[in-house]
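My current task is to audit a protein record that another person submitted. What it holds is a sequence and that sequence's fold in token form. Thanks in advance; the entry in question is below.
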Amino acid sequence: MNKYLNILIVSFFTVLTSQYNFSFTLYIPIVCFLVFNNSKNMLLIVPASLLAMFWFNNKLLLELGIVLGLIIVFMLITRGEKIQFNLLFIFVLTLGIMIYKYPSINNLLINLIFSLIATVLYGYFCYNLEGALISESKTRNFAYNEVIMAIAAVIGATIIKIGNIQLCVFVSIYFSMYLSKNNYPFHSVFYSLINMFFLRFIFKIEEALLIPFVSAFYLFPSIYAPAALISFCLLGWATNIDLFNVIYLQVTIGLAIFFELVKSTIISKYSSEEIVKGAYTQAMENANHEIIAFASFLDLFSRDFSESKEYTQKLSEGINSLMQYYCEGCYVRKECFSKNKGKLYTFFKNLIMYSKRSDYELRDADAISFFKSCPYIVEMRKSSILINERLNIANSNTKTNTLVAQMNGFTNILRQFSVDNALKSELDYEIFNKIYRGLNDYGFNVCIFEPKKITKHDFLIEVGIKGENFKQIKGIVEEICNIYIADKVTCIFKNATKGRTYFTIVPKLNFEIEYGYGMLAQEGNNICGDNYLIKNLNNAKLIAAISDGMGKGYVANQESASTLKLVDEITKTTLTTETALQILNTFYFIQDYLEKYSTLDFLEIDRTKGEALFYKMGAASSYIFHSNGTYEKIENEGLPFGIEEIIEAKKYKIKKDDVIVMASDGIFENIIDEKDLEAYIKGIIHLSPQKITYEILNYARKTKSKTLDDMSVIILKILEN
């Protein structure tokens, strides 16, 4: 509803209808409708109206000031939210202005009739706007309001005459162009015929016959519309046709050029064919993206696990040797371990692998800092060369072709991938066109509309609308979408810039998630072997995961980090979580000779359905604490990731105020009195998730444990959307 140029034109010319006997009868309902729907429109309406009145009838400036002032005051008090109050205000305001202008008692009936007309006109505007929210309505939308506003502007423009030119003809031509190019052919034809008869037979303007021609020409696609109109005008100009004044033809050519320059700011960007074609194109791009993303995942896996068991063992022994000989007694050990926490394993590994390259450390900023501050770097480099030669890294035979070893598992993996994609059903492409049309029918100026994901329960539409506030339009957009999408939708704000509001339309979110997380390395160790992952997926789901690498310190940290890195990568595809994890587990399973095991505690929360899926592979227990004091314990029944061929999920319903606790075995499996910890958590679930995390870690740290172990915790609190 913020086609700024149209608002300026309508305001400028409609206010001039006050010079006729019906005063502000047309002007008041139009201004109120535009302002009550978006208060920012007043910034356009006020200067345009005052300027028009100042130029053409400054005697009515006082009356206009009173009208605008009262509308602004009423809007500030009521915000125009109650239609019944708005109708009463318009009736009283119009009647007051009519009585002020025609105070005679004899004019009372006429004054009442015009006041009633203004009130009915505003009611009709609102009626049409609501029609855009009803799928069965084909005769109620914002375009009908625009037709009435355009007619009112033409009526106001009839008082302006520049030489022998009636300006009302060009105002009418402009709106004929606009309605035709905005994909409203019926409205354009109706409007052009009404204006032609009105101007031709009431105001005796012969050139009004040009208006239907313009309407017809601008039904042509693309550049053909202005080309046809300009050719028609040039032909009339060249042949000196008596039907049209040459000046009108010349100005019409200029107006056609002007319209092409401003068209992008007022015309809907996409046609029905473009929306459907865009959805199809996006489907093809998504398919290609899936193939590329999955191929990238395969490359990542093959890179990370391409070394033989013997090679991996030797490399680990070499790293441990460097740390034992040079780090144990180092006087900067504490500072170095604190600064480079989680990075030292990679530094030592690469130092051995690239020991014969003196420029290695120049490729990484963190490595530069480490090598400059290490007091034993010269000795370490010499030792790394000896380890490198012992591993025979330069000989390609030290690496095995993992893909050869994995061939037997690929068939199963690709079958899982294919079946997962085959089970997905797409939305009817025409739905996207209907949603786009619905937004335009409501009067929104849609500048971006791009379906990015189009499956039934996993769709994503990116939308941009000019001149609107997200909070004001969110509910309206969702209501329009819900007409065509049975599962309902939610609009998620992205950003607002340069007068445009950008947001996405996704499946309806019934729940929001707040979360907190934290970890502690076991006492006497600087590196925690646990790692965690929390992220929102594009399909209205959230995932959380904890991985505990086998062993302690750097090696365990690297194993758990590697597991979560692969989980992160595969969840970037549109595979279902169950298929994604099964594929990843299969990879681990078919290369078990590497003995690179880690636990995986994985949770997926569907914010639409209110479901929590737990995948436990060698992981510690998890809990769902309810607001009524009860809780559910989810215990592990599987071996670490990659040991068992099949993994199973456990599904639970979640409710508002539920608190989910995930932790590594350093918390629940290590506490001597587990019941005390459960009771303790029940007493703190009212706190924020991050606060609960700190409290649990502090409790576990101070409580007597079975053995010392790394500790990590993720807390998720379920909130209503």
About this structure: The chain has five domains: 1-158, 160-267, 272-291+424-507, 309-398, 511-720. Confidence is low (pLDDT under 50) at residues 396-405. Residues 309-398 form one domain. Residues 272-304 form the longest helix (33 residues).
